């Protein structure tokens, strides 16, 4: 008996159009002819959900010699592979490539041809399929994991049922992730709106794209679609884009979005969505005035909702709220045999954090460890142009907490490589413990900020002082020299009084 029909998987909006690339994806992450194995007598670990947290938990358990099972009702690889990191960064790369091609002069260039959009989306589907073997059912089965494709739910405190088969476990981890959330806007449900789960199925470019939500997903996709030729309008109730970020960083991104052709409506309260003929209309109030914006398609990017439904959590004795499964600092649920990891918890929703959660689950569940999620130092990056990357403490957080700090900031306008590359907008900002070289936090705004943040993540996590950077030779010319310059700037301030 197959776990589920290929037809039902193929009809999912994630997989439209069902071309050669999406067929190849399905063959890897939900093979239509897959037959679930006979369950072992008892598993050391069963993971529900084959996103990052579930995949890592299951395969590490198997690699350590344990009996592991993995349950997935849809596509293995989770959001990251199918509707998140992989397709979005592929689309961003295509958009940036088109923009670079048009930078031969600073004169206004014609908008990219519509065929470029179709080629970009086809490339996204191809690359996603190319990457999918890493998360495939066959790879995990060959690694010793029992892969069950179908809907799993708890039927006892130590038992899960999948497709009529019962899986008994010593430990389990809930890793079912989250999905796009729809805000309570009147008229929204009457519109065929897009989310990150359906936007990558587009094959024709929307000439006018309306985007609700100026967080990371909204800003990334708004800028990418603008680079591919769409006229984009971006709304948010907040007065700045990327509300979590440093205000200077947010301001740079907002300026660049507008320069790239994105119309920003910040501090906008959306009153309703209407469908007029073939057009979508957003009616909103801003600065005391009612306004309207008209588009061909609407993208909603305002948050995530946990996948909690029909898991049998009450039967398993697992408490949860509307927004997450309840866990302690060691990621244990209210059933001590069951853990939760990744987006299903209240922790930040990042692929790299789900990976780190899986490591905590393995150590605490299988080896009686005492690792705590609160000890993790979690960086993040928003992949706009320029990118915004951050780790540790913000200066405004330190002020709110009454923590005395020094701030060292170096603009890329003084960095030779950034000037040569035409990427001189942005900065490196370091938050230091007052009177010390200990780095408490760092924000980088640059075209490759995520990569530049890596040594600063190491420094914050392992308490490597800024003095070590000052004593290190950096290659010239590189944008990473901005970190060395910040270190020299700090050292100069320390040495001047003595001199």
Describe this structure in words.
The chain has 499 residues and is of the alpha/beta class. It is 33% helix and 24% strand. It contains 17 helices and 21 strands. It is globular, with a radius of gyration of 24 Å.
Question: Which key terms come to mind for this protein?
Answer:
499 residues; seven-stranded mixed sheet; alpha/beta; five-stranded antiparallel sheet; 17 helices
β-strand amount: 15-25%
In DSSP terms (H or I, runs of 4 or more residues), the helix count works out at 17
Rg calculated over all Cα atoms: 24 Å
Main β sheet profile: 7 strands, mixed
Cα(first) to Cα(last) distance is: 80 Å
User: What is the mean predicted local confidence, pLDDT?
Assistant: 94
Query: Low-confidence parts lasting 5 or more residues at pLDDT below 50?
Result: 104-109
- Structural class computed from helices and strand pairing: alpha/beta
Helix content: 25-40%
Shape label? globular
DSSP summary, beta strand count = 21
Present the secondary structure layout.
Layout: H1 6-10, H2 20-29, E1 43-48, H3 52-63, E2 68-72, H4 78-82, H5 85-101, H6 114-131, H7 137-142, E3 145-149, E4 152-156, E5 159-162, E6 165-174, E7 178-180, E8 208-212, H8 216-227, E9 231-236, H9 247-259, E10 262-266, E11 269-276, E12 279-286, E13 289-295, E14 297-300, E15 304-306, H10 313-316, E16 338-340, H11 351-366, E17 380-382, E18 387-392, H12 395-401, E19 405-411, H13 416-421, E20 427-433, E21 439-446, H14 449-452, H15 454-462, H16 466-470, H17 481-498
Parallel strand pairs: 1-2, 1-6, 2-3, 6-16, 8-9, 8-14, 9-10
Antiparallel strand pairs: 4-5, 5-6, 7-15, 11-12, 12-13, 17-18, 18-21, 19-20, 20-21
Helix pairs in contact: 2-6, 3-11, 5-6, 5-8
